[in-house]
Amino acid sequence: MHFPKFFSIIFILQILVFGFCESHKCAKPYKTIHVCQRGDKTFKTIQSAIDTVPPGNSQWIRIRISPGVYKEKVTIDNTKRCIFLHGAGRNSTTIQWGDFGSAKHTATVEISGNNTLVKGITFENTHNTRDSENVTQAVAVRVHADKCAFINCGFIGVQDTLYDSIGRHYYHNCYIQGATDFIFGSGRSIFKGCKIYFSNGLGPPKKGVITANERESEDDPSAFVFNKCKINGEGGKTNLGRALTSGNPRVIIAKSFFADVIRTEGWAEKDFFKGHEENITFVEERCRGPGSDLTGRVAWINKLKKSEIKKFVDISFIDNDGWIANLPVKGIK
């Protein structure tokens, strides 16, 4: 699940070449495409609708997806921008697939196109189940693009559910379910008002982990920020996160509710961090609930000043150039 620095450079070049979908071009959708599994005048699959978006598109195209379970693997490649996937609600529109193996190639939905907006859709990788004997990497969504937002969406899996790979992302009022490392990557992302559900599909001997952040260096501006979220679950207890690489992982959880599903130590670390815990930034700020008691937490948990916390939870952490205000939906901050 480690993302090499070489590919980070490639990603930056991609933004420079393809990332010109700015506010004066991305306004209200100028075109709507319909997807429905029944009917002769609509697309039957989501991918076939996406394929009609021209490379280098610079105006919002809305793809309205009717209720149903769409069993397909979907890709938005890096030439397709300003796509608005609009479902009928996360309990009504679902995209399912069951690939497994490498985290970079198993996603039910792969998003590599900048300026992607998704509303009212659940993404699910069906490979692992609670009764699986050999749980493996099986990604529901991989977000490898800049300026992407998910509103009222669902992400369901067991291991590596949401690969928040790289770029600036906003998750608002979403549901994310898994058992181990089920929110991972090196994105610069805010999760606001989301429900995080630990569903232990690993069996009693295994420890669950919610986040596995891959921030690479002290100069890397990325972080996972959870603001006003709810964490609950079933089947055991979990850690809030762990250090997945030998870089500088950073996770901030603020003003959130923890049910009694959090292990006493709260956080885990790999052996390569022992003696170098100063490189880790794991923060719990003003959280509540039976799982939020800091007594017994790892000794190296961080304390940040209020001004520092505000810098992360404020929308400007990911929205320094105003891209969220230019999304074709209102009132999501």
TrEMBL record:
It is found in: Secreted, Cell wall. The keyword tRNA-binding does not apply. Residues 33-320 form the Pectinesterase catalytic domain. Gene3D superfamilies: Single-stranded right-handed beta-helix, Pectin lyase-like (2.160.20.10). PROSITE patterns: PECTINESTERASE_2. Keywords: Aspartyl esterase, Cell wall, Glycoprotein, Hydrolase, Secreted, Signal. GO terms for molecular function: pectinesterase activity. Its EC number is 3.1.1.11. Pathway: Glycan metabolism; pectin degradation; 2-dehydro-3-deoxy-D-gluconate from pectin: step 1/5. Residues 1-23 form the signal peptide. The active site is at 181. It catalyses: [(1->4)-alpha-D-galacturonosyl methyl ester](n) + n H2O = [(1->4)-alpha-D-galacturonosyl](n) + n methanol + n H(+). GO terms for biological process: cell wall modification; pectin catabolic process. Belongs to the pectinesterase family. Acts in the modification of cell walls via demethylesterification of cell wall pectin. This is Pectinesterase. It comes from Lupinus albus (White lupine).
